[in-house]
Amino acid sequence: MAAMEVDPVNNHLQRKQSHYVSLDENFMIQKETYRGQQYSQIYFARLDLMRTLIYSLLPNWKPYLPVCTVLDLEEGKQCIIVGTLYKDMKLKPSILDEYSKERSATPLVKPHNFTHPDDYLILEDESGRVKLRGTVLSPSVYVTGNVVALHGKATGAGDYLVEDILEAGLPPQLELPYKSEEDKYVVFVSGLNVGSNSSNPLQFQLFVDHISGHLGDKKVQSIAAQIVQVVIAGNSVEVPRGLLNGQNLASKDQSRLSEPIKEVDILLTQIAAGIPLDIMPGPNDPANFSLPQQPLHRCLFPGSATYNTFRSCTNPHSFDLDNVRFLGTSGQNIDDLEKYSEANDKLAFLERTLRWRHLAPPAPNTLGCYPFTDRDPFLMESCPHVYFIGNQDRYETRLIKGSEGQVVRLICIPRFSETGTAVVLFLVIVVELEKSRMPCSQFWDPVQLMTT
Amino acid sequence: METLGILDEIQALVCDKLQVVSYKWLSRNFLISSNAAKRLLQQFAEKHGSELEVVYSVSGWLKNNPSVYHIRLVSRPKLSEAKGDFDDNCSVYSVQACILKDPAALWNAEFVQAEELFKQPPTVINCLRDNRFCGVINSFVKRNPEGTSVGTAFLQAKSAGAPAPFRNNSAPQPDNISLPQHKKFQQSSPNISLQSPNVVKDIKNESHGAGARDQGSKPSADKEKDPELPATKKIKGASGTGGSLASMWGRASTKSKSISATTKISDCAPNSVATAEAQIFAREAVENESSDDDGENVKFKRGSNGEGSRKRRVVFDFSDDEDECKDAVSLASPDPPKSKSSIYPQESSKSAVPQKNNLNFVEQNKDDLMVKEDTDIESKKLFTKESGVSNDKESGISSSDKIESRIPQNDAVLKGEVINSAPNSPKRKKVFKTRIDERGREVTEVVWEGDEAEKKPDSSIIKKSDNGAVNTTVNRPSTAKKSPAIGGTAPLNPTGKAGNKKAGNKDPKQGNIMSFFRKECTRQ
After folding, report:
1. Are A218 and B133 an interchain contact pair (Cβ–Cβ within 8 Å)?
2. Cα nearest neighbour of B69 on chain A
3. Residue-wise DSSP of B126-154
4. Boundaries of each DNA polymerase alpha/delta/epsilon subunit B domain copy (chain A) (predicted)?
């Protein structure tokens, strides 16, 4: 049947374009060698780099106090010490516990929180450790792996009484570009969980139809034409784990295993055919376990990987879109913080990681991580403009401001399979130049895109 | 009008075949744009709607929550109600004979169609792939069905010499690299948009990287390691940078880093079985001796997995890899006697290119007394073959010590070389024999089958020097062997240990393995 072009070509809407630069190089494990090293090196790298940073901040904080190492503490003398925090937790699960339990194929799910009123913090630098006391420092807020500076004094009992604390603070932020001419949208979605019982393929199909511009009339499609980037933040597929019990798979089972990923590929093809797409691995995806997760392999997506719009990215993922910096993860770092510390809401955790200037302080203590030897890729060198976390329970967002004028939009992306909600961020940047101050900018609140 | 024809067809499909006809399905089937399809469905619904069920998609901003853009599918009875919630529009989504219980079934027919389109050969451009019926078009989208994808990845910018293309290899692939199937990648690349120019080379890198890395634990190498394997070869430069921090860990290298070339090679464990390929590479490596970098790494090809058990690389990991590498390399260098006393004790006699399982000590500096790497003698053989060095002598090692001249200059290069089991030269085999000598020490002798025995310094020295790292140096298990004469300290466990050893914990207080050699030298 001949194609019937009811709409002449010039009636078609053109999709907006934007300039994309990927910044994932830091998270790729390329030149690393594993020589059997343990994790001391990444901790040392972290301490080294952050200490230098904190030393540069000390003159602005309390320049009158001397800085000393832990072993040089003198009783009663006020000083500043800089080191890595370690939180001693009573309820923290130990690897030995896992051995005593029955080993099952499904990962043991421990959603609850391991904090306990008796937890206490210890500060450690290369010379030694000292237990921290004082009401200023709340153990439920901090986790192992933070590098901070503490002002206080050593007590007779050999502890350190903390009077004040200095965190690294938000990293410097590049200026936002001036107001762009066009409104552009970036869509975030995560937790598709294709292949699980909770996912509804119709919902995802509706979503795909909408963003690619099939659905709706001209008006709706013109909105869709302004979507310039789609980011899938993890957990796109749920592999039937019951099959992965160590036995050889029958061919029937093999096809069952790969069906979800094929379905994802078909759907991603539909997206990639029209919009640039970034896909990040998540905790359940067929990617490596430890952070930084490496990009999903292209062979998993034979259909969509052929497009130049398809990008398989690391987790954490960072990119620049029209000079707006984005940074985000698939949720593992925040989920881990949630297990080992307390806060009012998820956004508070996000804010803390920004203020600690470190994406994942609990790595490698409780969060799996690669034993880097000379660097810590989770240190944030520059402040993102948009900071997103995938696979959360619900959509939340907030705008936070830093001490030097940094402005960050925090976004929690809900799981699509459960909520049918994706997040659309308007890249409408309103820059107000004030003569006396640095330019500041605002983001519109992101919008929820819900499908039912 | 064609539309009439289509409308009739729709009717047939819906009423007779009881199919769900959605606008997408319609557009793909009749090759019309989706907007046109929607209009058609609208016409159809108006005409026949009373007998059938129609589902509408309503989308827009929620009136009571303007920050939420909602898309909903509603059936006709609820349409007006739904419209009230939105301040926007609706359009027909599908028509079907009756309302289905499971809304997902609405999606079914469409998906089956999509799947069929998807399964067409990659070179076919169909309406799924080019999104031609969409209301919004994007002319910047390019599709490249074969070979590397167009543009995108910054990864592509990496040179061929770079560590394995991340996309290809860094993603976890359980069967990746660790097995000697480097060919596999080559085959798979055409159909998948891998970065083909890099593939082959990287595979090689990987495979030999794999070999290198592994000390026997290859098969179980964790996935995490794999992606880096290819990279390790290149590490040379990279690890250097880590040196400053790494040196904090007290692994100061005591040896001078002499030659750097072919650093990578040293990284390799002697596990892999050398093949002709390796020979060539080694030769190239030698030629490039001074060249630092990625260039021609010695590429090792992993032999069969079974070989894995054979040799382990002994690594005294008292320093960074690159030290080791360099050390190893320096060993290889042809002359300066002082640079190394490569003593290959077991080789003892200047003769014999060991066939298999021989202690191969690649020694760094005499001073260091640290045996860096253990390479299988057979690797040397390859070179001997290549370079025409006779079995008896290997060029290069001219130290005053014993002439393990077996080690041709290429040796250093070969560091990690894996030797194939087939002896290149004489078919004699060396075997180990252990006995207690007059002083009560256990002595390991390397003996040609049926031939004279050569003494080796005793195991106690080795014991001392062996800090666990050395375990394998001495005895390559090979078929004939008896378990390591070299004292109990080094359980001959090629497979497992190497890995641990790698971690390296050389205890400086213990004696050096080199003393073992020296003794041997002086004795002679």
Report:
1. no
2. A449
3. -HHHH-TTSSEE-TT--B--SSSPSS--G
4. 186-395
